[in-house]
Write a structure and sequence with these properties.
The chain is built from no helices and nine strands. The protein has about 110 residues and is an all-beta fold. The radius of gyration is 14 Å and the shape is globular.
Length: about 110
């Protein structure tokens, strides 16, 4: 895993549902927490993945986080990534893979 940026996240305290998409969304705004270093892979144009249920999922970011991270990442959490060139972007987590022994992967 190559480190090329850092991330911050806004944890969900209470969770509501977005009436349009059905995704969880925060009902209260919280401050960002520092997440630490990570590998950021940005896809332009956006990746389109067909899930097992046939639904098409579209996302721009794959973020790989060292396994030692102990914060709470879940679908619906807002993430802010800062690249090594200083560029800042925000996205909402659409998926989390925490089964890998070396890293945690989030995408959105």
């Amino acid at each position: 895993m190559r480190i090329n940026g850092t991330f911050r996240y806004r944890p969900l305290s209470e969770c509501g549902k977005d009436p349009v998409t059905g995704f969880p969304m925060p009902t209260q705004a919280q401050d960002y927490k520092d997440g630490g270093c990570c590998q950021i892979d940005k896809s332009i144009p956006a990746k389109q993945i067909i899930g097992a249920d046939g639904q098409v999922n579209v996302y721009n970011y794959d973020v790989f986080i060292p396994r030692c991270f102990d914060g709470g990442l879940a679908v619906g959490v807002e993430v802010q990534v800062v690249g090594e060139d200083g560029s800042v972007d925000k996205f909402t987590i659409q998926g989390v893979d925490n089964l890998n022994r070396k890293y945690i992967e989030i995408w959105g």
